[in-house]
Each structure stands twice: as C-alpha cells, then as structure tokens.
Write a structure and sequence with these properties.
The chain has one domain: Tetratricopeptide repeat domain (Serine Threonine Protein Phosphatase 5, Tetratricopeptide repeat, Alpha Horseshoe). The protein starts with a helix and ends with a helix. It has six helices and no strands. The chain is 76% helix and 0% strand. The chain is globular and about 50 Å long.
Length: 124
C-alpha cells in the first residue's frame, strides 16, 4: 500500500516534467521577444519585419506550417511601411493557410484593394 502511494506523486511529477519539455506545436522564431522589443522601441519594428520574414521563408522552404498569425503580422508590418500590395500578399497567405482567419483576412484584403483602386482613380 505504501509503495503505491509513493508511485502516484512520482508518476505525476514525471508526467508534468515530460509535458513541459515537449516541443511546441509551431516554431515562432523568437517572434514574441522581437514583438515585445518593437513595442518598447518603435525603431526595432523593422528588425522584427526582417527577422519574421526570414523565419517565414525558412518555414516555407522546409514545407513546415507557418504559425498562425505570422503571415498577417508580416502583412501589417508592410502595411504600416506603406507597401500595400505586399500586405495584401501576406494577408492572402494567412487566409489560405488558416481557414479560421478567412473572414477577417478577406475583409482586410477587400478594404485595401478598394483603397488602392480609389487612389489610382484619383491619380488619373
């Protein structure tokens, strides 16, 4: 009876330690630390974009699934930099990779395309 009682905490501790050591479902490429640094110092947002783009490129090259939201984050960083078409491209990748984001990404893409066509209409 006593030996059974000792096994329960041991197995529980082992299960917890094993669960904590398991790799994550997605590779984020240091996204959270870079994003935090960018929020603290806006001048680091360009470094975030470069690092994130390199990480996404590596993931695509190795046919690994890009973590949810990373395409959209890249799109937003490009949109803030004034590169609307690149933003649309990354929003489209997010929409295609993650069906649950379809409604939001489609709405963003349509709004940006409307802005582009309105801007080109006023230039003519």
């Amino acid at each position: 009876m006593i030996s059974r009682i000792l096994w329960i905490p041991t197995l529980t501790a082992l299960a917890l330690l094993t669960g904590c050591a398991a790799p994550g479902l997605y590779q984020w490429g240091g996204y959270d630390q870079s994003l935090y640094a960018g929020y603290k110092d806006v001048t680091k947002m360009e470094a975030l974009r470069i690092k994130l783009e390199a990480h996404v490129g590596e993931m695509e090259k190795s046919n690994a699934r890009v973590a949810p939201g990373l395409y959209a984050e890249l799109g937003t960083l490009y949109l803030k930099a004034g590169a609307t078409q690149k933003a649309i491209d990354f929003y489209t990748k997010e929409r295609n990779a993650w069906p649950e984001s379809r409604v939001l990404m489609t709405s963003l893409i349509q709004n940006l395309e409307r802005r582009q066509s309105a801007a080109s209409g006023t230039k003519q």
